[in-house]
Amino acid sequence: MENSSFISPLIRDLRPYQPGEQPLDSGLLKLNTNENPYPPSPRVIDSICDEANRNLARYPDPESEMLCATIASFYGVARGQVFVGNGSDEVLAHAFNAFFRHGNARLLIPDITYGFYKVYCQLFGIPPGLVAVDPSLRISLENFAVQARADGTIAGIVIANPNAPTGEGLTLDAIRYLLAINPMRVVLVDEAYVDFGGHSAVGLVAQHPNLLIVQTLSKSRALAGLRVGFAIGQEGLISALKSVKDSFNSYPLGRLAQQGAIAAFEDLTYFEQTRKAVIATREKLARQLAGLGFDVLPSCTNFLFVRHPKHDAGWLAGQLREARILVRHFPQERIGQFLRITVGTDQQSARLLSVLAGILGGRAARR
Ligand SMILES: *Cc1c(COP(=O)(O)O)cnc(C)c1O
């Protein structure tokens, strides 16, 4: 690289996370980044507009106290057990920085999971310890235990529950098991998709000082564009996160984000309606894709991870793109023949299925 002497050595070698495509062309059907197909609650929009007309000349509350109180009462935890950030990716970054930098000790993460974890390991100089998922791509508790024992001292454990991109939901006993094999370090459970059918471990926080839950408003609350995520854990962990945050950016959430997020938690009826609609569409779509010959992994999320025994996944993704439908294909080991398809509305599913039927039937894809 030219002038590479300008760049810090660590940054020169970074391999950043590649987010799914966000096309400017609105005619594409986006089933590639697990956004909610429904708009956010109308109450969210009202609150954001009210706030925009009020106080934008003033800095926001640096601690987002009202939002933390709202989240705390929603989940039945203390206000001091909640931390909020500019999207859960930022919360995760602060957590990696705060809890997992223990010299050469490795951070255990599944080999097939959310791609950002490895990127944060690189950014913060944390050696990752990849723990193989089993042949059906399920998280193997046994492999975690074997590796924790082999390493002796580990930096911690990070898992997504439900896992991405596989869609697998773990039981709370599985989480308890991971907490038990790693009592000296933090177990971070990323619950980005938990509202679509997973089991939240928030109830375990009271008994486990080493448990940190991370969630987001981007998926189940249809607010990917607002950037709000949060963590729940005992006060010791939360105050460490606050000290990282205040050493980085005191005001991660703007006024609009704080007010919009509060309204999203207040409109429980809308949340339940849209969440259940996505789950119902997912179950129907899973059966219909199986009917087209796809292997469909069981999913507790708002996406399906599927493979067709007769058609290359990269080719299928390309064919879908020509028909103006985006899905996610990860050309990497073990999952290169899978597609991750976000669950949309029933109408969007119908469009996907008719295009897929055309592709598989050897005819030109229809629009
Ligand atoms: C989408 C996603 C996130 C990031 O969510 P933001 O709050 O939008 O940053 C984190 N973890 C997983 C597993 C995700 O799928």
Molecular structure report:
By secondary structure, this protein is of the alpha/beta class. It has two domains: 19-39 and 269-361, Aspartate Aminotransferase, domain 1 (Alpha-Beta Complex), CATH 3.90.1150.10; 42-266, Type I PLP-dependent aspartate aminotransferase-like (Major domain) (Aspartate Aminotransferase, domain 2). Helix content is 38%, strand content 14%. It has twelve helices and twelve strands. The strands form three sheets. Strands 2-8-7-6-5-3-4 form a seven-stranded mixed sheet, sandwiched between helices. A three-stranded antiparallel sheet has the order 9-10-12. Helix 4 (88-99) packs across helix 5 (116-123) and helix 6 (141-151) packs parallel to helix 7. The longest helix has 24 residues, at 268-291. The protein is globular. The protein binds pyridoxal-5'-phosphate (PLP).
Order of helices and strands: HEHHEHEHEHEHEEEHHHEEHEEH
**Strand tally, please?**
12
- Average pLDDT over all residues: 95
Q: Which ligands, by name, code or SMILES, are bound?
A: pyridoxal-5'-phosphate
Termini separation comes to 43 Å
CATH topology name of the largest domain: Aspartate Aminotransferase, domain 2
